Amino acid sequence: MGRMTAPTPRRVLLAAPRGYCAGVDRAVIAVEKALEQYGSPVYVRHEIVHNKYVVQTLEKKGAIFVEETAEVPEGSIVMFSAHGVAPTVHEEAAERKLATIDATCPLVTKVHKEAVRFAQDDFDILLIGHEGHEEVIGTSGEAPDHITLVDGPEDVRNVEVRDPSRVVWLSQTTLSVDETMETVGALKEKFPLLISPPSDDICYATQNRQIAVKQMGADADLVIVVGSKNSSNSVRLVEVALGAGAGDSHLVDSADEIEEAWLDGVSTVGVTSGASVPEVLVDGVLAWLSERGFEDVEIVKAAEESIVFSLPKELRRDLRAEAAALSAE
Ligand code: 0CH
Ligand code: SF4
């Protein structure tokens, strides 16, 4: 017989906002609508969003994911992912006579436009972001001769510019706000005349999810972040949780990846999810916790989100044409 111990109070803190942002919602609906409109297959260059479950679900509906447009048969339909693409990708697609649907998030496009404008004005652009990440590859492609990647504060020492009086920083949309400010601080020490982007490049969704997890961090013995390993914004939520004082934090694709041992001695569990994560996966985590006595769920609300983006224009055009044809019948 084990020693009798008083039951530990068990509760869940559930972050709000969490999960889908407007850009992801739009991109996922765009693939679904394209499949309905044109039939299978619809090719998608790169994971439409960095989430395993989303990709698998769309594959079952007839989407085919590829890494490069060169893999798409000539004359087919290809959609570009929410992370954006370099102009050369549009050119390759045109050469292969592909019909393209661009699901790049409008907030990523905004950063592309900033890059083009500062390059036209002959600035050196210091793009803060993670090397090899799809979004950074796309943004850098807008002005390869003017952009230098800065991958975190440690990388600042390697940065060189042509003219320190004409330098601007831009960033990936899904970075840690705090780490980015640290990088900017180090860059400003090195280049005091460095100018900032005209508006925040780290998007509202990334910022709000980090603020919410920060609010719960200090009260949580464990924070479970739902998201895929290649999802930059989801990985950042684990770092932010730990930075805010959470006892422990893990990234899981779904409830099956949670380990029982993580609950040892734990009384408060924080739960959140990245911008590419469907709510059904969070429901699974909450059900898993509830089966283990974590039934009491308290919402930690950091912000209200109401932004919605309209579907990619190519798709809207074809959906409108179809609606017009149907009404003329
Ligand atoms: O966080 P990252 O950029 O890795 O991408 P995700 O997980 O697909 O989330 C959506 C963001 C897409 C572009 O900003
Ligand atoms: Fe757009 Fe931000 Fe969502 Fe990326 S995380 S798709 S930039 S809203």
TrEMBL record:
Residues reported in the UniProt entry to bind dimethylallyl diphosphate: H50, H83, H133, S231, S232, N233, S276
Pathway annotation: Isoprenoid biosynthesis; isopentenyl diphosphate biosynthesis via DXP pathway; isopentenyl diphosphate from 1-deoxy-D-xylulose 5-phosphate: step 6/6; Isoprenoid biosynthesis; dimethylallyl diphosphate biosynthesis; dimethylallyl diphosphate from (2E)-4-hydroxy-3-methylbutenyl diphosphate: step 1/1
Annotated positions binding isopentenyl diphosphate: H50, H83, H133, S231, S232, N233, S276
EC number: 1.17.7.4
Record field: catalytic activity: isopentenyl diphosphate + 2 oxidized [2Fe-2S]-[ferredoxin] + H2O = (2E)-4-hydroxy-3-methylbut-2-enyl diphosphate + 2 reduced [2Fe-2S]-[ferredoxin] + 2 H(+); dimethylallyl diphosphate + 2 oxidized [2Fe-2S]-[ferredoxin] + H2O = (2E)-4-hydroxy-3-methylbut-2-enyl diphosphate + 2 reduced [2Fe-2S]-[ferredoxin] + 2 H(+)
Names of required cofactors: [4Fe-4S] cluster
Protein name: 4-hydroxy-3-methylbut-2-enyl diphosphate reductase
Cofactor note: Binds 1 [4Fe-4S] cluster per subunit.
Alphabetical list of InterPro entries matching this protein: LytB/IspH
A GO molecular-function descriptor: 4-hydroxy-3-methylbut-2-enyl diphosphate reductase activity
Residues involved in (2E)-4-hydroxy-3-methylbut-2-enyl diphosphate binding: H50, H83, H133, T173, S231, S232, N233, S276
Source species: Streptomyces poriferorum
Function: Catalyzes the conversion of 1-hydroxy-2-methyl-2-(E)-butenyl 4-diphosphate (HMBPP) into a mixture of isopentenyl diphosphate (IPP) and dimethylallyl diphosphate (DMAPP). Acts in the terminal step of the DOXP/MEP pathway for isoprenoid precursor biosynthesis.
